[in-house]
Structure prediction request, 273 residues.
Amino acid sequence: MQKPISAQAQTIKGPREHPLSAKKKFGQNFIIDPKVVEKIARLADAQDRNIIEIGPGIGALTEQLLMIAKHVTAYEIDKDCIKVLDEQFHEKENLSVIEKDFLTTTAEEIEATQASHCVGNLPYYITTPILFHILEDLPSIRTITIMVQREVADRFNAQVNTKDYNALSIILQTLCDIKMVMKVPPNVFHPAPNVDSAVVQLIRKDVDQASLKPFFALVKKGFVQRRKTLTNNLKDVPNIKAILNDLNLSESIRAEALTLDQWRQIYEMSSLR
Prediction:
C-alpha cells in the first residue's frame, strides 16, 4: 500500500530528481503528518462538494480532498510544486491545478468553479491579505478552513479585554462565525516553523458587507494606538465624549475594553453612519 503524500514529504523529488525543498520566498511548510491532513479534509466539509484549495504544495491535503470532494480546484504559484502535482495526480479527473497567485483571482473565476468552500495551508506572511481577498472580493466562497499561525488564530476569535483582542477580531467576528478547529504543533511540518499553528474555520454571515466599511474604519481608528484612550484615538468623531457618557462608559476607556455590541452602539450614535 502506497504511503500518503504527507508521509513522503521529505523525500519527494523535484526537478532534476533533487529532493524538493520548501521555498522560504513562498512561505512553504509541508505537512508531514497524515492524520492532520485527513482531519483537515474531513472538517472542511468537503464531502461531495466542489472545493477551492489555496497553495496545495506537494499535494498532501489535495490527496485527502480528492478522496471525498466532487472536484478540487487548486491554486499554486510554485512551478516546481505544480510539476509534482501533475505527476502525483495526472490520472485524477476531479482535480484542476491552476498556476496562479490566488490574490489575483476574480469573483467570476471563482464562481465558475461552483465552489462555496475553500481550504488551505496558507503561507503565514500573507494570511490576512488572502483572508480579506476572499471576504471582500469573492462572495461565492461561504466557508473558509485554513491553517494559520496560532497567534493569528487567537486574534480571530479573541474576546474583549484580552491581549489578542483587536480591530481584526471585531471585523472578522462581525463578518463570520469563527471556530478553532484544531491546534497544530511545529513538528507536523517540514521544515518545522518556529511557531505553533492552528486550523480555523470561518463561516460567512449574511450581512451587508459594503455598508459596514465605515464601521470597520471607525474600529481600526479606535485601535490605531492601543495604549491611548478611545477619546484620543477617536478625537475627530463629533461628540465622542457625550456618546461614551450616554452609554455609561468612562472617557478613559480603551478600545480593547469595548464589546462588539458597544462598538456598534458608538457607530450608530456617531455621525459617521
